[in-house]
Amino acid sequence: MNVPLAILNTGLVTSVGLSAPASCAAMRAKLANPSETRFIDSGGETLMAHQAPLEQLLHGRAKLARMAAMAAEEALIAVPKSEWTGIPMLLCVAERERPGRIDGLADRLFAEIEQALEVRFAAQSAVVPYGRVAAAMALAKARELVLQHGFPHVLIVAADSLLGWPTLSHYERQDRLLTGQNSDGFVPGEGAGALLVGKPAGGSHLECSGIGFGVERAHVDSKEPLRAEGLTQAIKLALADAGREMHEIDLRITDLSGEQYYFKEAALALSRTLRRRKQEFGIWHPAESTGEMGAVAGISVLAMADAACRKGYTEGPAILAHMANDGGQRAAIVSHWIERR
After folding, report:
1. In the chain, % of residues over pLDDT 90
2. What's the pTM?
3. Backbone φ and ψ of 141, nearest 5°
4. Hey, how many other C-beta atoms are within 10 angstroms of the C-beta on 245?
5. What CATH code is carried by the domain that includes residue 256?
6. How many domains would you assign to the chain?
7. pLDDT band at 2 (very low <50, low <70, confident <90, very high)
């Protein structure tokens, strides 16, 4: 990044909180709120999931739209509503190939969010259908909109749910859900998140100074040996973009949600990028509180980084976030907390 991009405000709706402060406080305390679903696994046990506790009983795309609107409103709280129409919204949703993907994510969800907010966003808005790496891709697009097209703000919104039976049954058949019969899996979740980004200005803020992408051929469904080449490439590119080296990073925050494959990948990528010994190198994964939230994972990672820096409980100001989706796409973001009084 020639010019860093600042995270100006955040919004979150998760199973452990209906706002960013509530959700991030629960993540910090490692609280979780899984509950029973109406679905039964192959062993006859009720499937557990992280369900967002909205007051109104909604399902499917209607719930996604409501959660997304709540997160967007939170992120935009300091911007007069009369200015919202001049802001592009980049909507992060599940990959097109996601088993059981909810219909209408590419063409109807965006309009439903606008309807809920009673606003029309700028014509440069777009849908980013890349699951867990969508937030990073949207951040790269936001950088272009801010730095090359002169937009003062860009709103990145994500909404996703893995709680439909077609999705749950697929992952259960693949032994990827955490159940009484399978310890190597994730707990499915749902939620929404939002980031308001723009050029750095006055005041303390989290600056995203580097971003990188890679492709892993030995993805989770492949039979190839895992060497973490895609994630390693993404991390190296993000570090180079930010002008940093891995030993200068103080903390990692990732989208890891419980599967051994992704923990192994993160460990391999670290061994291939860290060239100087560090006494400690923390790694946080907010999905242990929220469950696997798909496209919302990237935003929850960045929102947690922002909250931790504002509250002063990180190991230092330099943070590496990295994400991976099942199709093999990898992303990494280097950010740095700028303290101004």
Report:
1. 91
2. 0.96
3. -65, -40
4. 14
5. 3.40.47.10
6. 2
7. low
